[in-house]
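Hi L., both proteins are below.
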Amino acid sequence: MRNLEKINELLEIFGHFDVNFAKNMEEKIDTQYFVLENLKNSMKNDEIFIKLVILNSIVSYQLCTTGERWWDEFSIYWSKNAVDNEKLGECYVKFLENSKGNRRLLNVKIKRIEKVAPFLENLNLLDFKTYYLDMEKLLENLSKNLNSKKDSKTIVFAVKMFGYASRIVFDEFFPYPMDIEIPKDSRIEKYTLKFTDENPIKFWNEVSKTTKIPPLHIDSIIWPVLGRNFDFKTCENKLGENFRYLLKLTEL
């Protein structure tokens, strides 16, 4: 069942947003973007930096803490610990086994790392630049290596975080493709129920087509706002008048 009144309100709000607004949200508001910037600045190897971001993304589920705190733990650890590319998976597993924020389903997550690490170890910075220009290809290859569906939450989330990491490394912005879907986590699922009880991915795909904002950029607008510790005052200072439309998203 759909709540058409609320859906129309949502679309009206999103009529004030575009890809550039989402980009500003990502770079000025999303704490996950900040921690990646901090990590990149503390590491000497951009290639390893991107590989670690992808590895962390594919095990970022069933956390023992918030997503924001988990990525902060990740950034702090790798800013202090070196990694050998040929032992990439082994080094990451050591971090995961001793992490505080990601202790559930460890065996399953370690197997995921072991599946994808050989693929990543064979890539260089030029390969990542190519993938940044064709993120759907990265989605496809991660899906194959992990034997997961392309709309799997962790796969599409990995592409989103890869986009962040690549933007930081290459100092260039390429929007996410329209065909890569929103990561369906508990925060998004709960919010979607305000509008419909149908599949959240299907619903946000429709919103994306109507607003012409790629689903991963829609995620960047709504996911931080729904967080427990979202600072609306800081957001107002950084985003200006569009701030009031973000506030309306929480009032629906």
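That was the first. Here is the second:
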Amino acid sequence: MEVVEQGGMTVAGVLVQAPWQRLWDEVPKAWQQVFQRAPELQALQQGPFMDVSLGLVDSAYLQLVGVRLREGAAVPHGFTAVHIPAQKLLRHRHVGPAAGIADSFGAMYAWARQHGVALGDFKLDFGYLPSGDETEHELLAGLLPEVAWRYAHAG
């Protein structure tokens, strides 16, 4: 694990706002919508598909599943986009099935506590594939104080 400086980016995709218990139902539905549009997104995306945990808003978790857009790419119709400014994050490579990602994030938060690094709720998870057979994810967790993301123009 290491603290890294991540450049700013715009992420576009399907926005999910739900209580913790409903995320397990709603996020997979959002992934289905994104992956159905994978051929269209290929020309617009920079890097793998990703899941962004934007934090808690009005007592519900806000997740954005989609893609990092290439510089100058238009937001696809029907997608929501957010701009994530440059910031410091804790990075860890998760190797194994996606089902173990929550445990890897847990290990990151434990490492941060042991090393006096304060983490917030903001998280990035790069590495999803339409086939579902990914074996590695790049996980990042935002350091406190959190750097505010903002909505970009909608598609």
